[in-house]
Design a protein that fits this description.
Helix content is 75%, strand content 5%. With 202 residues, the protein is mostly helical. This is FCD domain-containing protein.
Length: 202
């Protein structure tokens, strides 16, 4: 989850079970869950290996998010409560601290939680479940995007703060438009990064 293992590394069930002092059954279950999140691939006769970064996957996942999340936000924002905004403010405050401390794993958790709270009052559980899965599958990409540069960090922080402000001010249309741009910007950043990495490796 923290991005420490490079693409293609084999994840042997017996070695992982021994490392964590558990049986192979929970290890197998965890690997299946990680496959569902796009973090590993289970290859016949080889087992689980760490997934690589895919531009096609980034484009698809973030495109789906950019379509679905603004729809949920338009329905959710007018229904957000004082308690919701208190939680959003707390998330933003911690987010700022963790960004400057370079705690990438916590970035992803806070980013997902912020989106969860913003969309939580939409009253569309099926769409919300799809978005929750997409957020889970894009978590590693989100953390990578934030770690690319100081500019990425500042922009993400500013966009999150502006999202909450627009919702609080009742500008639902503006908030939905910003959320769409926010997601599209992350996708573009990541695509450019992966392409530059591939060029550098040639």
């Amino acid at each position: 989850m923290s991005g420490e293992l490079p693409e293609g590394v084999s994840l042997r069930q017996d070695a992982l079970a021994a490392e964590f002092g558990i049986s192979r059954i929970p290890v197998r279950e965890a690997l299946v869950q990680l496959e569902g999140e796009g973090l590993v691939k289970i290859v016949p006769h080889k087992g689980a290996v760490v997934s690589g970064l895919s531009i096609d996957e980034i484009n698809e996942l973030f495109m789906l998010r950019s379509l679905l999340e603004p729809v949920l936000l338009k329905k959710s924002a007018p229904r957000l409560t004082a308690e919701d905004y208190a939680e959003l403010d707390a998330i933003l405050a911690e987010y700022k601290v963790e960004l400057h401390a370079q705690h990438t794993t916590r970035w992803g958790e806070l980013n997902t939680r912020l989106h969860d709270v913003l969309l939580s009052r939409a009253g569309q559980p099926r769409t919300a479940a799809i978005v929750a899965t997409l957020l889970q599958q894009t978590d590693r990409y989100t953390r990578m995007q934030l770690s690319l540069s100081a500019d990425s960090i500042r922009q993400a922080q500013q966009e999150h703060e502006e999202l909450v402000r627009l919702c609080r001010d009742g500008d639902v249309r503006g908030a939905a438009a910003l959320l769409k741009r926010h997601i599209e910007h992350a996708s573009k950043d990541l695509e450019q990064f992966i392409m530059s990495q591939r060029r550098a490796s040639k």
